[in-house]
Amino acid sequence: MAGEKSSLRFYCRRCRKMxxxxxxxxxxxxxxxxxxEFDVVTWCCSICHSPIVEVSKLHKEGG
Length: 63
Hints:
By secondary structure, the chain is mostly beta strands. It has one domain (9-58). Helices cover 0% and strands 49% of the residues. It contains no helices and four strands. It has strands at residues 9-12, 17-27, 38-45, 51-58. The radius of gyration is 13 Å and the shape is elongated. It starts with 8 loop residues before the first strand and ends in a 5-residue tail after the last strand.
């Protein structure tokens, strides 16, 4: 797990409540035709570890 610590909270349909989430997967530079480049980040439930939401995020070089 990538495990970036976050203070984000989302509703988990599986747990049926608001839960803390963590970054469980990051696909880098998914839109190479776009400048600047973006990553797609998947945030997962900290309780059941189910994927909750995918967001595009500006790619940061070197980290």
